[in-house]
Design goal:
three-stranded antiparallel β-sheet, alpha+beta, Arc Repressor Mutant, subunit A, 267 residues, Beta-Lactamase, 9 strands
Length: 267
């Protein structure tokens, strides 16, 4: 039965396949057929056909404990990043920022009430939370998310945060409306955001906005540290200026890329 609100051109089978892929979460990497059917609301025969199709395409594998995703699913996310050209622009700046700070550096964008990582240069360290391209966290509790939310109007913030998080993570900091508005106003005024164990124990980071050629915030970049290793003073006095410089350089490169005329090739 087609879902409510779907138009005549809506492909229900494709939607079901994406529903099955999204059903797998960090706390639920392997599921049985029955669990997939329950999570997606699909009938067991339908869920089975979707899983078999995804398995044939290389996106799902089956084992003794059930079904799980394969690394090929990452292609779906990296296709988005490649199509933007953001990685090509940001990579040298992220690598230099990581070398200068000795820390992992990432770029994320807003997706509902979550942030989604779209570029990253990682430094091997013991961290509380594993991060890779496509990882999502609740936006409000991350420095990246605070930057992105601060660029929205109060009405947009309310609408975005009303959407349920799909990260599967319970953050430590749960501010009320007044505290949240105050924090986002401060972030917007100073142009950068700090997170000190708001998301999880041991996670301390600082983030700055990335702007396109029109001055609009389209993403954010951060430096992520371990609170046991990096003090707030070092984070803000040493890492923050380097981060701000890198953010400006990435934004300038994005603006230059956008200004280049796009010429269609004629066969």
């Amino acid at each position: 039965m087609p879902r409510e609100g779907a138009g005549p051109d809506f492909i229900e089978a494709l939607a079901r396949g994406l529903d099955v892929i999204r059903a797998f979460r960090p706390h639920r990497p392997t599921m049985t057929l029955a669990e997939v059917a329950k999570e997606t609301g699909l009938a067991r025969p339908t869920a089975r056909r979707v899983l078999i199709t995804l398995q044939e395409l290389g996106y799902v594998r089956s084992g003794a404990q059930g079904f799980s995703l394969t690394p090929r699913v990452l292609e779906l996310g990296t296709a988005y990043v490649r199509s933007m050209g953001l990685w090509d622009v940001a990579r040298p700046h992220l690598e230099e920022l990581s070398r200068a700070t000795g820390e992992s550096c990432s770029i994320a964008q807003l997706d509902g009430s979550d942030i989604v990582y779209v570029a990253r240069v990682a430094v091997p360290k013991i961290v509380t939370l594993a991060v890779q391209i496509g990882t999502r966290f609740p936006a409000l509790q991350t420095s990246l998310g605070k930057v992105l939310l601060s660029a929205l109007s109060p009405e947009e913030v309310e609408r975005v945060l009303a959407e349920p998080s799909r990260s599967g993570l319970e953050p430590l900091w749960r501010p009320g409306p007044e505290e949240r508005c105050s924090v986002l106003r401060e972030v917007g005024a100073r142009g950068w955001a700090l997170t000190d164990e708001d998301l999880a124990w041991g996670i301390r980071s600082v983030a700055a906005p990335l702007r396109d050629g029109q001055g609009r915030v389209f993403a954010a970049v951060n430096v992520n540290t371990n609170s046991a290793e990096t003090s707030l003073e070092h984070l803000t006095r040493h890492h923050l200026p380097l981060l701000s410089s890198a953010a400006g350089e990435i934004s300038a490169d994005v603006a230059r890329l956008e200004s280049v005329p796009q010429v269609d090739r004629v066969p």
